[in-house]
Every structure is written in structure tokens, then in C-alpha cells.
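Sequence only, no structure available. Ideas?
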Amino acid sequence: MKVRIRFALAALALVVAACQGSSPVRGTGEGKVVSIDAAHAEITIEHGDIEGVMKAMTMPFTVSDPRLLEGLAPGAAIEFDVEQRGERHFVTAIRRR
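Reply:
I predicted one. C-alpha cells follow.
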């Protein structure tokens, strides 16, 4: 029984190590600002397909730096860089169009 537990823990450790070593997926999208929540460093964007990252949708993103939200307002047309880390998506750059 102890051997099985040790084997299971070793296998789990290998899976966790493999997941942590993967690099983030990055892409660039175009869209429109729907809302901004500066208190939570979050922006909701209606965007088209982001090749290799996600299909077109409207969704909230956490920004990597709250200063990225400065000067933006709902309705602004933007181009943005997004980085997927695990299940989470972060906006790392925003440019007005």
C-alpha cells in the first residue's frame, strides 16, 4: 500500500512539474472596450478571433499593469496583446486604433 501511495505521489509531482514548465500562449487581438474595472485591474473587451489563443467573444481580462487602463473608456477601439497562462488570460499591452 505504501509503495502505491509513493508511486502516485511521484506521478503527481511529475505532472505538476510538466505543467509549470510550459510557456504561455500569446496573441494579438482587435476589439472594442466594453467596460473597465480599475479597482480590480480588469477590462472587458468585445474582440474578434485571436489566432492560436481563442475565438471571437466578449470577456473580461486582467491587465498585467493597471496603468494600461489609463485614458481608456468604453467604446474605444483597441489592439491588444494577450497572454494565456493556464486557464487565465492577461492583457499585457493596449494600443488605440
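The chain is about 20% helix and 45% strand.
Hope that gets you unstuck.
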